[in-house]
Amino acid sequence: MLWQTQNEDVLPNDPTDEVKETARDILESILETLPLIGIAIVVLVVSYLIARGVRSLLRSRLSQDRSESFARVFSKLGFAAVIALGVLTAVTVVFPSVKPGDLIAGLGVFSIAIGFAFQDILSNLLAGILILLRQPFEIGDQIEVEGQAGTVEDITIRETQLRTFGGEKIVIPNAEVYQSVVRVQTAYGPKRTVLEVGLDDHEDQDNATDVVLEAVRSVDGVKSDPEPQVFFTGFGDSTTNFDLRYWTDPEQATVRSVQDRVVRAVSRALKDAGIDMPSPIRELDARPSLAETFAGQS
Fold first, then answer.
1. For the chain, what are the domain ranges?
2. Topology (CATH level 3) of domain 24-117
3. What stretches of the chain show up as alpha helix (H) in DSSP?
4. Which residues contact 129 (CB under 8 A, 6 or more apart)?
5. How far is CA 129 from CA 91, 155, 156, in A?
6. What's the pTM?
7. What are the angstrom distances between the C-alpha of 225 and each of 222, 246, 248?
8. Highest mean pLDDT of the ranges 6-10, 14-18, 132-136
């Protein structure tokens, strides 16, 4: 009997009892956590509502003083910041042992890893923020960057979108835009156009100047302030050359249409005044050796 009693004492526990005990512990943990999960859900919902309000408020306020792209992007960033804060708060509510400092430290390490993995994307995001802050150009401006010219259609946090003068859509990463030379054609209002014209060497330069300026002033679209100007610049093979300078609105379509009218008006005015614009003249020196060569070929 003694041996039987000792043997019963060392018998292993029933596996079914262990499973039941584990399930009971898990169920109790879930029941204890349910109120915390409920609070976390409330925190997330409240954070979402606050984030929407912050986004609307930022967009309405920023759009009064800054561009629409600036207001749109930074209102989204404000929305994301409030949501991130809400998620961080919800995690600390559900897991009280997790401290906010530990979460922030973990996010810092995670951010470094993400930064190395998505370096190009993050550089475009940072460049987009800097472009929106500095605003070297706005939507509707006509710019040239990286050999691409067109009208700015949109500025997002990642890219700048252009509509070329030929009707094509060009998407340029913001990092390239920020690091490149950008020519903003519509930044300062009127734009100057320079046309080179050649007169016959025997023509009266003062008379030609009066005829050209009168013709240019009559063209619709040419600005009267600053006034058109003529500057003689040098001599060609058979011409005296001058630059005709005039100002128009900066939009590319306007520049090209006014240029067409100016060329037509100047050409017509010079012809009516009897002033010649000769084509280049080439002189051939027929030496005896050249004549003998042609004679031998015949």
1. 24-117, 135-184, 191-272
2. Helix Hairpins (1.10.287)
3. 2-9, 15-65, 68-94, 100-117, 119-134, 174-179, 205-217, 252-272, 288-297
4. 73, 157
5. 29, 10, 9
6. 0.62
7. 9, 9, 10
8. 132-136
